[in-house]
Structures are given as structure tokens and as C-alpha cells.
């Protein structure tokens, strides 16, 4: 029995809760760093700020005065605690040292073989490059979204319902969602205090993770802050009338019936934002599919390299 290969395979398969994905239970060092530095911190930031918004607006006696929200807040606190634990695991110096040592042993064995060294010459560089691409993509998919603003979500589905670049299925689904908005209430769409606060926080946090030149700021919101965008679609603080047509069922139906040209020509701030946001989310989806394809290729190469060195098949991917 080859003890070293089994020992290495065990380390490579070492599993943390923070590493759970739908694709693989294993990350290379580069992917552990992606989780540690990008994915998990974004989640912690969102959970922390969401809890602050809930508690500040409900008041210090929220547990007794607003018992109906206890379950929501306790769930967020539990998720926050677990996510902090994941981050602490990934900040464990010994874990990174261990991953580095294991990968170094494996890589040196590959590169020490003339034939395999030539075959897998730039494999680890490509894995690192892909992890960096994943990091950039992650920030975009996290923040190129509606931020939970219901009115903007309705605007996105108005655009998708007529966008010729969307699939027929997506257009039909968008129409159904717009019908659901109509059936849920006869009142205009109006995000409550929490929805608006979460949206402002979402856009504020986006500035920390994205460049100022990102199209989310320049094209979707046209340079507006979260509060300024809310004023544009809902009117000022003293306004008694919602500005955006998207809030009203009949106006939504009207612009959808007029079709794609009318949607493209609309100057309604919610429609303008939604047009650009739909483009970004579609681009991000396509890029995600491309990255998934690259990852499958690299996972296969890494597994093949491991087999060629140790003669063992295992889930030694990332």
C-alpha cells in the first residue's frame, strides 16, 4: 500500500463547511483564499448590516415590542455566527500552511517528471487565474442586482418581458411575475422602510467592492446614490405621489403592451436602471457559464495529473 498517496488524498479531500459548493468538496489554496477574502466577507457584511437595520429601526426593546420579527432576527444572527466561524476556519494559518505543503508536494512530483511537467506545465497558473476571475465575477453577481428593491424588480421584469435578447421562456416568466404583482395587491408598489434601507445599504456596500467606473454606478443608477435613486422613483420626502410608472399596474400593462421600442425610449428612472441591469445580469450569467466550463476542464486535468502521479482516482479537484 502506498501510504503517502493516501495521506495526500486525505488532505486534499479535507472538507470545511465553508467550502461547500454544488461542484466539489475541495478547493485549492487559491480557491480557499477566494472564499476567505471575497465570498464570505461579502456575506458577513450583508448579514451584519441587515441586523443593524432591523434592530435600529425596531428599537432597543424590539424583542418585546415586535415579537413577530424575533424569528427573522434570530435566524440572521445564527447565520451570521456560522459564517464568522467559517471565516475563522479559513483564517487558520495552519490550514493555509497545510494546503501549501500538500500542493507543493503534488506539484513538485508532477514537474519533476519530464513528460508530465511538459503536459501540465501551466496548470497551477491557470487555476490561480481562474480563482482571480471567480473573485471578480463574484463581486459582480453579488451587487449587479436589484438589492431587494421590489419596485426595481418589477421594472426588471417589464424589460425582460419584451427584451428580444431574452429567451422566450424568460419573457413568459417575466410576464407571469408581473401578473403576480398585480394580483398581490391593488395598491401601487411601494417598498417599505426596511426594503428601502436594505437597498441603500446594498448600493453603499457595492462601492466598497466595485470600481467607481463600474456600469452599476455609471449606467444603472446614473451616478445616483441609493437615497437619490429612491427619490427619483418614489419622489421626495414630502411627495404624496410615486414618480415611477412601474408602481402602477395599469401603467405597467400599458408599456408592456406598447412593446420593446417603448421600453427602450422610456425615461422613467426605474425602467432606465432596469434596462442596464438586465444587460449586466445576462452578461454575468454568460460569464459564469464560461467560468464553469473552464473549471470543469481544470478539475479534470488536476484529477488526471493526480492519477498519473499516484495511480489513485479521487475527487482531487477544486
Task: Tell me what the structure shows.
There is one protein chain. This protein is an all-alpha fold. It has helices at 3-12, 29-58, 62-65, 70-90, 93-112, 114-119, 123-143, 150-162, 168-184, 193-209, 215-220, 226-234, 249-258, 260-265, 269-310. The longest helix has 42 residues, at 269-310. It is globular. The two termini are 26 Å apart. The relative contact order is 0.13. Mean pLDDT is 87; it is low at 1-26.
SSE arrangement:
Elements: H1 3-12, H2 29-58, H3 62-65, H4 70-90, H5 93-112, H6 114-119, H7 123-143, H8 150-162, H9 168-184, H10 193-209, H11 215-220, H12 226-234, H13 249-258, H14 260-265, H15 269-310
Helix pairs in contact: 2-4, 2-7, 2-10, 7-15, 8-9, 8-15
Can I get a quick summary?
With 318 residues, the protein is mostly helical.
Which key features would you list for this structure?
mainly alpha; single chain; 318 residues; disordered N terminus
**Global morphology:** globular
Radius of gyration: 24 Å
Tell me the structural class: mainly alpha
Helix content: over 70%
Secondary structure tally: strands: 0
The chain-level mean pLDDT equals 87
Strand content bin: under 5%
Number of helices: 15
- What is the end-to-end distance? 26 Å
Taken in chain order, the helices and strands follow as HHHHHHHHHHHHHHH
Low-confidence stretches: 1-26
Major β-sheet, in short? none
